[in-house]
Amino acid sequence: MLQRKQIIVIGSVVVLMGLMLSLDIQGLVKPNEGAAANASGTAQTEKVKEVSLEDISLKSKESLNASLKKQISDLEAQLKSSSESEKLNIQKQLAQQWDDVNQTTPAAFYYELIAEKEPNFDSWLKAGDKFTDAYQQSMDTLVQPALVQKAISSYQKADKIKPNTLEVKTGLGIAYVTGTPNPMQGITLLLDVVKQDPKNLKANLNLGLFSMKSGQFDKAVERFKTVIDIVPSAEAWFYLASSYENMDRKTEAIAAYLKTKEIAADPNMSTFVDRKVNELSN
């Protein structure tokens, strides 16, 4: 199951980058990457479409085979008829089942329900992280804003229990940049994270992506190099290659794309990289 998840993630790197870079974010990263912003205020939010777990479950089941769909439907039926004392255990099973089939949105909703019943820091942090995965992977632009707001709410609840942790600051920073009218609040939080922890993987990766979005590819390169020093993933090499390409540094771009192909070992990625290398070599 883990290998299947890895293949899905690797195969969607190009799509995820396209989604990230298509976000319409104003004032994303200032030239000095550290422009003053009010990090203590509450991010402004726009009214978003309400999303129900039932609707999300129905939609998510469309991609499952009959056997997996039945397993989840049976658990959902048990949940409806269960007593209050039984619900938590079944919700945990459903969260894990959705996780196992790489359906992050319904999994996130169940982790939220778990956190409501077990309202501790770890539960709310996990819910926030799952909603972050969900909005970053969702292709539904109508659902994404609701998932961002749920991520923010979960992180804020975690922060009330254990204030000012780097995990929560990172999650909130990414969410504020991605889905609120106050992206600089998020950038400030992420910069504070890397100031305290220069090798923070999530913060550096997302600062790199946001730098790409703002056209600051030199800054993006430095961020992705830091990420690769921590975990040399296919995703990080791909982003580094794209940054080099946008700087017209073709030799470095080719080398990074080839590294992506080597690590990913995925046919779709290999085809994409071969085409890129051919384009950059001519």
In short:
The chain has 282 residues and is mainly alpha-helical.
Task: Characterise the protein shown here.
By secondary structure, this protein is mainly alpha-helical. The chain folds into two domains: 1-27 and 198-282, Alpha Horseshoe (Serine Threonine Protein Phosphatase 5, Tetratricopeptide repeat); 48-163, Serine Threonine Protein Phosphatase 5, Tetratricopeptide repeat, CATH 1.25.40. Helix content is 74%, strand content 0%. It is built from 15 helices and no strands. The protein has helices at 2-11, 13-22, 53-61, 66-81, 84-100, 104-117, 121-137, 144-161, 166-179, 183-196, 201-213, 217-230, 234-246, 250-264, 267-281. Residues 1-16 and 22-45 have low confidence and may be disordered.
What attributes characterize this protein structure?
282 residues, 2 domains, single chain, 74% helix, disordered N terminus, globular, mainly alpha, Serine Threonine Protein Phosphatase 5, Tetratricopeptide repeat, 0% strand
